[in-house]
């Protein structure tokens, strides 16, 4: 992916310690703390009404050490200053560039396709743990979107864990993860998340899980819409990029995670969708480039 040509977003809060590591991009460093078992925990309890531990879908959670001394629980550096704006390290520049590209795409696509103006989200980069308006943000949760403060939270060691644990790597695989979370922000802008949360409070756990799956698959589809429009406008994609996204989607399906962690699959407990569903809905968005194609709530078959 030609991300180096993207505009870097200034809507970034860098809460990492002084040392923060890279995740193996060409020319980037490696290191930093590992995180727990990987799932994309995209909307925590505020939307699902389910304990975040359940959202892991049975995947193993590993206790990790907190970030180095430089990182405080309140997300501030030891001198009390919080860094904002585009970071200068390789990992931070990549995340800010992908975020900037989602801003450039959605500010054109959303009004044209839905009549709604796009208001950008802020991305919080951290390591180990920080705070969000939705509660504590910890590395084991994976990246997530908090509707209460309109921010995407990303522990920057997540991508290294993708490579080490699931053998998924590549800049577009990582970009897909960010675009998925931004997709939740798009859902928030469209008023979808609030409606889902209200409905989930009125139904049983099984039905609430099904609603969560539809929310997550829609975010996968919106990531595909972003990728298509980004490529059309910026010639962003390179050979093999879509395959990288498919490998990532396949690796984090609920069925695959449950099979790996507990040896069997419980479809009624799915909260993000199966590997096949996640791949299919990303492809749906990518092929059409249309937000309207992502209406998982009206789809007869997921």
Describe the structure.
The chain is α/β, with parallel strands linked by helices and 302 residues long. Helix content is 44%, strand content 9%. The protein has ten helices and seven strands. It has a five-stranded mixed β-sheet with strand order 2-1-3-7-6, with helices on one face. Strands 4-5 form a two-stranded antiparallel ribbon. Helix 3 packs across helix 5, helix 6 packs antiparallel against helix 7 and helix 7 packs parallel to helix 10. About 21% of the residues have low confidence.
* Separation, N- and C-terminal Cα atoms: 29 Å
How many helices? The count is: 10
Number of strands: 7
| Oligomeric grouping of the chains | single chain
Structural class: alpha/beta
The percentage of residues in β strands lies in: 5-15%
Largest sheet: 5 strands, mixed
Percent range for helical residues? 40-55%
User: How do the helices and strands follow one another from N- to C-terminus?
Assistant: EHHEHEEEEEHHHHHHH
Query: Average pLDDT across residues?
Result: 80
Give the overall form: globular
Q: Report the uncertain regions.
A: 18-80
Strand order of the largest sheet: 2-1-3-7-6
* Alpha carbon gyration radius: 18 Å
What's the short story on this structure?
This protein is an alpha/beta fold and 302 residues long. Helices cover 44% and strands 9% of the residues. The longest helix is centred in the last third of the chain and has 30 residues, at 205-234.
């Amino acid at each position: 992916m030609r991300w180096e040509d993207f505009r870097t977003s200034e809507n970034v809060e860098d809460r990492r310690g002084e040392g923060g590591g890279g995740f193996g991009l060409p020319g980037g460093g490696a290191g930093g703390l590992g995180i727990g078992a990987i799932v994309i925990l995209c909307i925590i309890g505020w939307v699902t009404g389910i304990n975040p531990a359940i959202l892991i879908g049975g995947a193993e959670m590993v206790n990790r050490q907190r970030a180095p001394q430089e990182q405080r629980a309140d997300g501030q550096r030891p001198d009390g200053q919080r860094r904002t704006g585009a970071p200068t390290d390789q990992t931070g520049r990549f995340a800010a560039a992908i975020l900037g590209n989602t801003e450039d795409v959605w500010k054109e696509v959303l009004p044209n396709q839905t009549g709604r103006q796009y208001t950008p989200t802020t991305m919080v980069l951290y390591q180990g743990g920080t705070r969000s308006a939705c509660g504590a943000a910890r590395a084991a949760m994976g990246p997530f979107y908090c509707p209460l403060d309109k921010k995407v939270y990303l522990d920057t060691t997540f991508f290294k864990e993708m490579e080490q644990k699931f053998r998924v790597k590549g800049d577009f695989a990582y970009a897909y993860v960010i675009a998925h979370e931004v997709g939740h922000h798009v859902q928030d802008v469209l008023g979808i998340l609030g409606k889902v949360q209200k409905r989930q409070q009125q139904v049983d756990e099984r039905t609430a899980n099904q609603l969560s799956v539809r929310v997550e698959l829609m975010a996968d589809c919106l990531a595909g819409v972003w990728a298509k429009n980004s490529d059309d406008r910026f010639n962003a994609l390179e050979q093999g990029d879509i395959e990288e996204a498919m490998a990532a989607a396949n690796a984090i399906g609920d069925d695959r995670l449950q099979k790996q962690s507990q040896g069997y699959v419980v479809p009624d407990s799915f909260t993000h969708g199966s590997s096949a569903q996640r791949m299919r809905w990303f492809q749906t968005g990518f092929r059409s480039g249309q937000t309207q194609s992502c209406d998982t709530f009206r789809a007869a078959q997921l």
